[in-house]
Amino acid sequence: MKRLKLTTATLVLGSIVLVLALALPAFADVPGAGEGGLWNELTRILEDVIDKLLKVGGVVALVFFIIGGVQYMMSGGDKQGSAAARSTITFSIVGLVLVVGAYLFLKVLFEGILKTKVPTNVAG
User: Fold this and answer.
1) Which residues of 71-105 are buried (b: 16+ CB within 10 A; e: fewer)?
2) Fewest C-beta atoms under 10 Å: which of 68, 106, 120, 124?
3) Residue 20 neighbours by CB under 8 Å, 6+ apart
4) Which tens digit of pLDDT belongs to each residue from 65-108?
5) Binning pLDDT at 50, 70 and 90, where does residue 38 land?
C-alpha cells in the first residue's frame, strides 16, 4: 500500500512538472515577454520552485540515510531490524538518485529545449 501511494505521488508530481514545462513555451509569444515580461517572470518562479524542491528532496534523502544507519546500528543483530534498516538505506539512496536524475532531466529540458537556465545553486 505504501508503494502504491509513493508511486501515485511520484506520478502526480511528475505530471505537474511536465504540464508546467510544456505550458511555458506558450507564454513566449505574450506581449511584453522581453526583459521583465511574463515569460521571464514565469521561468524565474518555476526555477525557484524547482530549486527548493530539489533541495528538500536531497535533504530528505540524506536524513533517511542517516535514520537507516542509526536503525542498523541499533538493531543489535536482529534480522528484522537489520532488514528494515537496509531497506531504509536502500530507499534513501534510490531517492537521492531520483533527485539527481530529476536535476539532470530538468537541466536538459530547460537548457536544451526551452533555452533558459536551470537553477545552479541547488547545493547551497
Assistant:
1) bbeebeeeeeeeeebeebbeebeebbeebeebbee
2) 124
3) 46
4) 999 999 999 998 889 999 999 999 999 999 889 888 888 888 78
5) confident
Retrieve residue 65's grid coordinates.
540515510
**Residue pointed to by grid coordinates 539527481:** 100
Q: DSSP string of the chain?
A: -HHHHHHHHHHHHHHHHHHHHHHGGGGGGSTT-STTSHHHHHHHHHHHHHHHHHHHHHHHHHHHHHHHHHHHHHTTT-HHHHHHHHHHHHHHHHHHHHHHHHHHHHHIIIIIIS-S-----TT-
